[in-house]
């Protein structure tokens, strides 16, 4: 197992390289980059002395030529400010060199280091992702097991309608509906419309902070759970049903063991492996796909909202820093899941199977 872990750790490096390379190439051909935005902003700027808004480069009124556009000197200054005065391949390898020293650069528009921005936004995203993932698993696994036991009966058929609705409707639609009904939309105003905590949060007592935190988190978490529990419930149900039809289960029942004993002593250990196999995708999806829209809708200042704003502004250092973090998170999570696999079932040997 040790050799397998080392092999997977070494494979992370070329994976990150090609992910960054592909996205870097895409950003080079995408219109509306930071240089174009800065030039347009400067061309639209008129009648103000001193510095051009949004630029750190000083622009006096003699350099600005109104309808004639900017001088070549001014355009060169803007390119140099954003690092676009070098060829694309040189910029890419300079970026990789900086990443090797954990220097992700500074945001073009927020005047902060990318690392600082990620650290500031991470608590919101991790908090929302951990709670929603925990709730989804606490609901989906027991529900899926019970549906497997009651397959074809009234409980299974009645809950299938609930699952069909949850599977068909994405989390952000649930978020909008919850806002309309419970956050001052058209009906009730029981929960806050946006934000992670109240403005007076620091003045609250410890118990008051806990209540305020969960008061703000109720609707975002409910939206994510409603939009994410159906697929895991189906996976759990059919994994257990498949195991319950295997020969060893029939043999255990023939020996007189009860259903619950067979289910939790034998079936659970094998069926849970399939659920664990999808754990990385579930967590990454909940953290960085579901979180993205939920953070935008509820104005939660996390990594999802940061990445969305960076894409809008073409803030390339933030985009690549966020991308690197998400990719690395997913790869490490997959490796951890493989290790858990081998702990739960020692018969699984990734090295002997030539796993990559």
UniProtKB/TrEMBL annotation:
Gene3D superfamilies: MetI-like
GO BP, sorted A to Z: microcin transport; transmembrane transport
Topological category with respect to the lipid bilayer: Multi-pass membrane protein
Residue stretches spanning the membrane: 9-30, 122-140, 161-183, 213-236, 271-298, 318-344
Cellular component, GO, one term: plasma membrane
Cellular localisation: Cell membrane
InterPro entries in UniProt: MetI-like, MetI-like_sf
Domain of life: Bacteria
Main location: membrane
Keywords: Cell membrane, Membrane, Transmembrane, Transmembrane helix, Transport
Positions of the ABC transmembrane type-1 domain: 122-337
Sequence similarity: Belongs to the binding-protein-dependent transport system permease family.
Protein name (database record): Microcin C ABC transporter permease YejB
Organism: Acinetobacter wuhouensis
Gene assigned in the entry: yejB
